[in-house]
Amino acid sequence: MTAVCEKFGHQVSYKYALCGADAIDKVGDPFPEETYQICKEADAVLFSAVGDPKFDNNPTAKVRPEQGLLAMRKRLGLFANIRPVQTFKCLLHKSPLRAELVEGADFLCIRELTGGMYFGEKYQDNDKAYDTNMYTRPEIERILRVGFEYAMKRRKHLTVVDKANVLASSRLWRQIAQEMAPKYPEVTTDYMYVDNAAMRMIQEPTFFDVMVTENTFGDILTDEGSCISGSMGLLPSASTGESTPVFEPIHGSWPQAKGLNIANPLAQILSVAMLFEYFDLKAEGALIREAVDASLDACVRTPEIQVEGGAKYGTKEVGQWIVEYIKKK
Length: 329
Description:
Blueprint: H1 2-8, H2 21-27, H3 33-41, E1 45-46, H4 53-56, H5 65-75, E2 80-86, H6 99-102, E3 106-112, E4 122-124, E5 129-131, H7 137-153, E6 157-162, H8 168-180, E7 188-193, H9 194-203, E8 210-213, H10 215-228, E9 236-240, E10 246-249, H11 266-278, H12 282-297, H13 315-328
Parallel strand pairs: 1-10, 3-8, 6-7, 6-8
Antiparallel strand pairs: 2-3, 2-9, 4-5, 9-10
């Protein structure tokens, strides 16, 4: 970010804030009030990850790292998560799918973030448990509007993913989508059950342009989509809504790699590209994407995506190579 800002004459200031496992360890709160105030006053949040394996094996813990991320989304009103899924030609062999299936795949998964089962009424005892999947018309309308607007900027194809044959909440989603579609006559709108969408993403990922869905379905489908590229370390995301937008890689934390200089930094770097693009600084975002593409083509890559017999590059070396590329342009 600093290299791009210097290149284009922008000024940027940074503030570090605690969240997730680090915040629990230091202050006992996964999303401290101080962090919220810093986020609220900022123009954007560049986020990393919240988790730590030491919390993973205790699902009954009252304080968990993920609560920090959920609280941040809720308090900042971040109702839309935008995850691009794309393939890189030089990395097609890394995808678990055949190259001819994934080549050219380029779509957005737009997930509703603040409604549904993750935030609905919950109950659990030894014999019974339930989660409530409730959505209101305004919640559905605003996320669908995001989907239609992104489709207008891209290939004008929107797929609404639901389970309207079974779930009442999904039937409301579909009803509202059908009401809104005529307002976007240039967009081809289709509707797909979530199980069919999961299958279609594997069979024909190039079918999709923009996909919009509810919170729980989106959580699952976006992770499935991330596998298409061949590495979760390649894909960024943005969470937007009523307040400060948040930009972050789609992958979680990797504490085991601390100090080893092996983590792939590209998703974090591409999150910066999304940040610039959000503020309509398209040239800045494009330069970052160009630099990332150039690093991949030059085989300046961390171990998990390096070609067999290729040179060894660590996190710092990849990042520095991209910085130098930006400075030379």
